[in-house]
């Protein structure tokens, strides 16, 4: 049976969506405020108990002197790199060619801060110690993204990470962690967040990825760095008079999901095995995930993969994903993030969906 719905429509109506935590609707905010005392006072321009308590909690969790709440990671990280350039008097930073700053921020770092970038490594692989060794003395800061999202969420070994950190320390290059998905990688490394962050001078974490909050970010580091970041937050217009809807919800979803990262990781391993057993034309990147996310690559044009996924969805009720992107005319891919929904999909339904996917892909 061929589905007449688009993949997005089929996924929206599916009885058993496989990816993510749930719908991003107003219920998310209502849930976060359930049972809250309505008389609690709002934060005001970055001050007040609500914001300071949460910043202290995150500084302790990340093992850093000080933490600052930001409306977005985009703002937080451009500011982090600007501060490192100003401190050192250098105008260059280094990161991966597929870093969020390079491909998703409309060149904010270059346009707003006139900072030059060194793109390390090939697009399809991780930054290695050998790449870092080649950096010149004119680089103020290296940004590492763990996991590297655009290549499926890959990670270096802990030994390599430590070696990169030691090298940077020895060379006077500040090391910043794009930890948009830091919580999600802790089960793989079998380390605490503070242990990973100890390798870095500063870190940004997000509250709306694996934690499934609404929006918001924390930037953490030494006290002088955090103080400077507050000045820049004001300059960027990020010092909203009240941010408590984001802070309360970030705190709520942190508490609700921080203990579930190992479960999501195990489930991602299981889901990746199902994809890798679904025939020659489809595989996961990485082959064995290292956190709750991975990419699915298919030797099929985008429209053919969309049709197969929509057919599976309509026939079995299992929504494997809502979108597909073209890699070229003959190959396509999509990203999978495992969250709360996965555990609600009955195993027999999931297996039936993959049996049908295998059939569709071999047609
Ligand atoms: C790796 C990475 N870094 C930074 C960001 C920026 O976060 P925000 O959307 O809060 O600006 C994202 C967002 O998707 C991300 O995936």
Fold and architecture overview:
The chain has a 7-stranded mixed sheet with strand order 2-8-7-6-5-3-4, sandwiched between helices. The longest helix has 16 residues, at 73-88. Strand 12 and strand 13 form a beta hairpin. With 363 residues, the chain is of the alpha/beta class. The protein is built from 15 helices and 13 strands. Helix 2 crosses helix 12 and helix 14 packs antiparallel against helix 15 (347-362). It has 2 domains: 7-20 and 260-362, Alpha-Beta Complex (Aspartate Aminotransferase, domain 1); 43-241, 3-Layer(aba) Sandwich (Aspartate Aminotransferase, domain 2). 44% of the residues lie in helices and 16% in strands. It binds pyridoxal-5'-phosphate. Pyridoxal-5'-phosphate binds next to helix 4.
Question: What would the keywords be for this entry?
Answer:
single chain, 363 residues, alpha/beta, Aspartate Aminotransferase, domain 1, Aspartate Aminotransferase, domain 2, 2 domains, seven-stranded mixed sheet, four-stranded antiparallel sheet, 15 helices, 13 strands, 44% helix, binds pyridoxal-5'-phosphate
Unreliable parts: none
Structural class: alpha/beta
Question: Any idea what the shape is?
Answer: globular
Cα distance, first to last residue? Answer: 12 Å
In which order are the strands of the major sheet placed?
A: 2-8-7-6-5-3-4
What CATH first level of the largest domain would be assigned? Alpha Beta
Rg over CA atoms, rounded to whole Å, is 21 Å
* Named CATH architecture of the largest domain: 3-Layer(aba) Sandwich
Nearest-integer average pLDDT: 97
Q: What about the largest sheet?
A: 7 strands, mixed
**What is the share of helical residues?**
40-55%
* Strand content bin: 15-25%
Q: What sequence of helices (H) and strands (E) makes up the elements?
A: HEHHEHEHHEHEHEHHEEHHHEEHEEEH
Q: By CATH's scheme, which homologous superfamily of the largest domain applies? A: Type I PLP-dependent aspartate aminotransferase-like (Major domain)
Bound molecules: pyridoxal-5'-phosphate
At the fold tier of CATH, the topology name of the largest domain is Aspartate Aminotransferase, domain 2
Q: How many strands in all?
A: 13
């Amino acid at each position: 049976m061929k589905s007449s719905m688009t993949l997005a429509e089929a996924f929206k109506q599916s009885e058993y969506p496989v990816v993510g935590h749930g719908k991003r609707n107003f219920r998310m905010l209502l849930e976060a405020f359930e049972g809250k005392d309505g008389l609690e006072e709002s934060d005001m321009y970055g001050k007040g108990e609500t914001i300071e308590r949460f910043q202290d909690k995150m500084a302790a969790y990340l093992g850093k002197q000080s933490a600052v709440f930001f409306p977005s990671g985009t703002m937080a990280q451009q500011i982090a790199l600007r501060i490192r350039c100003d401190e050192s008097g250098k105008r260059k930073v280094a990161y991966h060619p597929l870093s969020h700053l390079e491909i998703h921020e409309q060149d904010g770092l270059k346009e707003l801060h006139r900072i030059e970038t060194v793109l390390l490594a090939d697009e399809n692989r991780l930054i290695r110690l050998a790449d870092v060794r080649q950096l010149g003395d004119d680089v103020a800061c290296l940004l590492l993204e763990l996991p590297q999202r655009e290549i499926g969420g890959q990670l270096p070994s802990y030994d390599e990470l430590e070696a990169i950190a030691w090298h940077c320390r020895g060379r006077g290059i500040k090391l910043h962690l794009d930890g948009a998905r830091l919580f999600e990688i802790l089960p793989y490394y079998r380390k605490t967040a503070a242990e990973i962050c100890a390798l870095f001078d500063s870190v940004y974490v997000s509250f709306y990825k694996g934690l499934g909050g609404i929006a918001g970010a924390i930037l953490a580091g030494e006290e002088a760095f955090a103080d400077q970041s507050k000045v820049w937050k004001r300059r960027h217009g990020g010092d909203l008079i009240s941010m408590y809807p984001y802070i309360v919800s970030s705190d709520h979803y942190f508490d609700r999901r921080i203990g579930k990262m190992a479960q999501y990781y195990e489930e991602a391993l299981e889901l990746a095995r199902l994809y890798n057993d679904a025939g020659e034309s489809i595989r996961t990147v990485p082959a064995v995930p290292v956190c709750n996310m991975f990419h699915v690559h298919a030797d099929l044009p985008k429209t053919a993969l969309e049709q197969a996924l929509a057919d599976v969805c309509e026939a079995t009720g299992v929504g494997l994903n809502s979108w597909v992107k073209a890699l070229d005319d003959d190959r396509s891919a999509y990203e999978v993030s495992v969250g709360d929904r996965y555990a609600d999909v009955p195993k027999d339904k999931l297996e039936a969906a993959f049996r049908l996917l295998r059939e569709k892909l071999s047609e």
